[in-house]
Amino acid sequence: MNKKPLMLVALLCALPTLSALAKSEPQNVLTLKQALKNTEQQNLQLKRYPYHQKILTALKSQAMLSPNPELSFEAENFLGTHSSHAFSGAQYTLALSQLIELGDKRQNRINYATANIKAQTIEYKNTRLALLATTAERYYQVLKFQALIALNSDRKSTVKQALNAIEKRAEAGAVSSADVTRMRYALSQVDLNTAMLQSEFERSRLALNELWQEVQVSDYYAGDLSQIAAIKSEAALLDAVNTAPEFALLQQQYMQQTANLALQRSSGQSDLTLGGGVRYNQQTDASSFVFSFSMPLQLSNANGGNIEAAQHQLTLLNEQQGQLRIQLRKQIRTLHAYYQGKTTQAQLLTQRIIPQAQMLIKQSLKSYQQGQISVLQLLDAQQALFDSKRALINTHSELYQVLLTLERLTGQPLIETHQS
Fold first, then answer.
1. Three-state secondary structure call for residue 2
2. How far apart are the C-alpha atoms of 328 and 53, rounded to whole Å?
3. What would the pLDDT profile of 251-297 be if each residue is shown by its tens digit?
4. In percent, how much of the chain has pLDDT > 90?
5. DSSP β-bridge partners for residue 374
6. Which of 259, 145, 157, 270 is nearest to 195 (CA)?
7. Residues 290 and 95: beta-carbon distance below 8 Å
8. Model confidence at 75, in pLDDT bands (50, 70, 90)?
9. How is the chain split among helix, strand and coil, in percent rounded to 5?
10. Which of 12, 91, 268, 380 is the most buried (most CB within 10 A)?
11. Helix axes of 105-171 and 3-22: crossing angle, nearest 10 degrees
12. Contacts of residue 235, Cβ cutoff 8 Å, sequence gap at least 6
């Protein structure tokens, strides 16, 4: 038997291992835990929330204030004629008045300000959860392209070494020049695929860095996409809808608008102003007390439009709660079914397709050694294994994306990331 085909077979079998051994140890390694920590510490959107909380707390302090008393001084009957000539007949009144708020306005202002703070807190938690989920999604995208590049690198080494072997056999006249061209074309296809994957890897890595204030350059991202956690039952996920972050925010907004409606109703009620003081008549050199009372006539509710708007807002939020519950349940059912389907595909790839592709390679190697098939047919068998492994990486990546979407919708920890 010709020794050159045997050398080629040995290369095809040994190259993935040699390629792995040739890989250098990464220096700058980023983990998912560190990526999530970076988001919590550096994301600009999260860093703005303490200022919003301070603003709302200050507004609550303002709401707690009562109207200040008013001091007034009045002079009359002076600089006139006859008895009012100059200041001879002047009257002076020094009075103190106080606006008394009716309708429990102060307490309703406080309740509304408190509801705003609670809504802001829930919005912060939801934003934090969404940003952490986005971080994990982008991180797993980076992992996917990193795994595909490694797989493609192994494939390139195999094709390149096979090309060298075929070129030597072509020089010896054992194979045709068409076989050499076919192999060069295969190598160009691998290079094109590598360029596309590198572009996607760079894009996903930069997208991850967009979440942080400081750019962190890493040459390796730690993680294993093949470790997929078991998903919760559909019933458990549907039950989680009632505590979903979006639902909790909508409930708090309803409480917020309830407080606003109470405030608008109390603002529609007239306030009372009481005053009292001392009046001095210079002409008679007499002093007396004065008392005043004033209150707007409530011919119509001056705040009627705002009250009606608050009522409609409450009705709208109530309607949105029902719609959101239905929408979340539909999304969860769709994602759960999609996850089950993808899980089945991953099992088929792992348990049947990839082992069958590996068996095909062994049988093709044996047939090639016996001269029954060409080297191109042998490479086709390896391409089938490569395609199967690539499909498995993409399937695992999609499973992670589904889990993270479910986490975002339900607020339930489904994989070990930021919620543990």
1. coil
2. 29
3. 999 999 999 999 999 998 899 999 999 999 988 889 999 999 999 88
4. 60
5. none
6. 145
7. yes
8. very high
9. 70, 10, 20
10. 12
11. 150
12. none
pLDDT at residue 1 tops 70: no
278 phi and psi angles, rounded to 5 deg: -130, 135
Angle at 135 between CA 130 and CA 136, to 5 degrees: 100
**225/195 Cα distance (integer angstroms):** 22
3-class DSSP state of 70:
strand
**Is the Cα torsion angle 238, 334, 393, 26 positive or negative in sign?**
negative
Kindly state the tokens that stand for 172.
């010896």
Residue from 186, 123, 140 nearest 160 by CA: 186
Taking only Cα atoms into account, the Rg of the chain, rounded to an integer number of angstroms, comes to 39
Question: Can you spell out the DSSP letters for 7-59?
Answer: HHHHHHHHHHHHHHHHSPPPSSEE-HHHHHHHHHHH-HHHHTHHHHHHHHHHH
> Are 378 and 183 contacting, i.e. CB atoms less than 8 angstroms apart?
no
Highest mean pLDDT: which of 19-33, 214-228, 234-248, 276-290? 276-290
Phi and psi at residue 96, to the nearest 5° = -125, 130
Dihedral sign computed on CA atoms, order 358, 362, 363, 368: positive
What end-to-end distance do the CA atoms of the chain give, in Å?
A: 61
Q: Specify the DSSP class assigned to residue 80.
A: B
What is the Cα–Cα distance from 373 to 111, expressed in whole angstroms? 82
pLDDT at 240 over 90: no
Strands 220-221 and 29-30: parallel
Q: What is the mean pLDDT of the chain?
A: 87
Q: Is 282 helix (H, G, I), strand (E, B) or coil?
A: coil
pLDDT of 25: 65
Does an H or E element contain 291, and which? strand 286-294
Q: Where are the alpha helices (DSSP H) in 268-374?
A: 304-348, 354-369
Write out the two tokens for 149.
Answer: 């590049």
CA distances 71 to 4, 93, 108, 293, Å, are: 110, 11, 27, 15
Task: Put residue 77 in one of left, alpha, beta given phi > 0 → left and psi -120 to 50 → alpha.
Answer: left
Contact 363, 391 (CB under 8 A): no
DSSP string for 163-205:
HHHHHHHHHTTSS-HHHHHHHHHHHHHHHHHHHHHHHHHHHHH
As given in the structure block, the two tokens for residue 66 are: 């009562």
3-state secondary structure of 155: helix
Dihedral pair phi/psi, residue 378, rounded to 5°: -65, -40
Structure tokens at 412: 């339930």
